[in-house]
Amino acid sequence: MLPKEILDKVRRIEITTSRLVTDVFAGAYHSAFKGRGMEFDQVREYQIGDDIRTIDWNVTARTGKTHVKQYVEERELSVMILVDASASSHFASNGVLKNQLAAELAAVLAFAAIRNNDKVGLLIFTDNIELFIAPRKGKTHVLRVIREVLFFKPKSKGTDIPGALEYFIRVARRRCVGFLISDFFHADFQKSLNLTNKYHDLVAITLNDARESVLPECGLIQVRDAENGQLRLLDTSDERMRSWYNHKAKERWEARNRLFGQTGVDHIDLMTNEPYISALVSFFATRRHRQ
To answer: Residues with Cβ < 8 Å from 170, sequence gap 6 or more?
Structure first.
């Protein structure tokens, strides 16, 4: 039996996000994602104008005539929400905590999916796979997804994005739309992004906090790495220290955006102290126009 405060919080998020989906995202999600999944239908002989990438070389070699694979749009999509629950997600200098923002985003995406009769699944990860819920339909299932994102207690503190994406590929046999929600402090996951985006339609949602890019002048401060526990003393009154910090943050930001561009992964940047609605609407619109 769930405590009343947990049920109340889930209920509040349900009311808020379902209203957002109805009032703001109606049709936007559908036009941005519906029909993106394709499944194999049949093989037929090649006709002038066919995309050569669809040639079935096995059938072509066996028959001596060029054949291509035909695909049909899937009638429904499977949406997988991948949430980074590492220790760095329990942070915000101003606004909501990253993990709280992740929970509300997951709720909005989940309600948008079931409104379009799609399936929704959940993968919570740190440097281990903490929880996997297979895609299903229905409001009861979505409420479970929201509850887990809100209140799940991970056993580990680290981050392993490649491990999470490899697991996603392994358990998702059919093409999915995957929303990967993280602050992306993990290094070196380009290969995993490329591979995942080959099999699935991956969208990266980055959760940022203003204090991660600009260091204020406030004297000596001691900071702790949330994931490995390392302590460091910073003299924020030193202009060179602040300049170094801000420069490194800018480099990290640019490198991450460059990585998403190189891998062809759609990307949404969000701040913990800013409304996310306009960013989501803009993303849906841009994606719809690009299609």
So the answer is: none
